[in-house]
Amino acid sequence: MSEVFDVDSVVLDIEGTTSATGFVVDVLYPYSRSRFGALLSQRSGDPDVARAVAQVRELTGDPDADAGAVEKALNTWLDEDRKATPLKTLQGIIWAEGFARGDLVSHFYDDVVPALRRWHAAGVRLHVYSSGSVAAQRAWFRSSPEGDLLPLVEELYDTENPGPKQEPDSYRTIAAALGRRADPGRLLFLSDRPGELDAARAAGWRTVGVRRPGEPYYEQGVGDHAQAGTFDEITITRSIT
Predict the structure, then answer these.
(1) C-alpha distances in angstroms, 98 versus 16, 108, 136, 163?
(2) Which of 37, 119, 136, 197 could make a disulfide contact with 92, Cβ separation 3.0–4.6 Å?
(3) What DSSP string describes 93-140?
(4) In terms of domains, do 133 and 81 share one?
């Protein structure tokens, strides 16, 4: 890919883009599954846990669901890889604690961290928009194999705020928050999912589809979006505007 992107900000997807989906599915999902029950039974009074439980009850249409029924719903959504906000919230709590204890270390493709450091040094603002909760994102970047990467990124967004990743309004909300409501073309979104790329472009953003062999959306492709196999193929500059 030879196109050069002159933008102020890059917004990053995580799974399939900066990091292997397989790591999330094979390592993080089982880790959270084994700990849902204890979290629900021992910390039901935690405000974040209580809010997530209320959301599970609303989504399942069972206002009286007990901890066992809530855990069953979470595991079903996990099996379906459903991007349900309460599932992501509770996973985020569990993962953040696992990263803090040293049980978990996040994964990044080899080309990602050098590119992020390069773009950051050039004055490009880096942000994250992932279906994983903001708490999980923060722990993910803080606990990389190369140490704490959190200083490289600024704003973090999930499906609770600003909303679903395949809705253009979510990207408009982010643009407004970043001060780019009037010129969303100064924002670049990197993702492996065509539906997310379509939504970002509908909101006026620039887009690059990241296609990595072995990732779930590799064979599907990224439609007519610019595409790259690694971050090394993405050239980003930032002119002063």
Answers:
(1) 22, 17, 10, 26
(2) 136
(3) HHHHHHHHHTS------TTHHHHHHHHHHTT-EEEEE-SS-HHHHHHH
(4) no
**Considering Cα of 104, then 106, then 164, then 181, what sign does the dihedral take?**
positive
Q: pLDDT tens digit string along 8-43? A: 999 999 999 999 999 999 999 999 999 999 999 999
Looking at 101, 123, 140, the residue that finishes a domain is 101
Q: Are residues 226 and 116 in the same domain?
A: yes
In whole angstroms, how far apart are CA 42 and each of 66, 144, 175, 177, 203?
13, 29, 39, 36, 43
Q: What is the pTM of this model?
A: 0.89
Sequence length of the chain is: 241
Tens of pLDDT, residue by residue over 152-200, are 999 999 998 999 999 999 999 999 999 998 899 999 999 999 999 999 9
Distance CA 149, CA 106 (A): 11
101, 116, 144 — which closes off a domain?
101
How many Cβ atoms from other residues are within 10 Å of residue 238's Cβ? 17
Q: Which residues pair with 6 in a beta bridge?
A: 237
Which amino acid is located at 231 in the chain? Answer: F
Give me the domain span that covers residue 82.
25-101
The upper half-sphere exposure of residue 144, i.e. CA atoms within 13 Å in the direction of its Cβ, equals 20
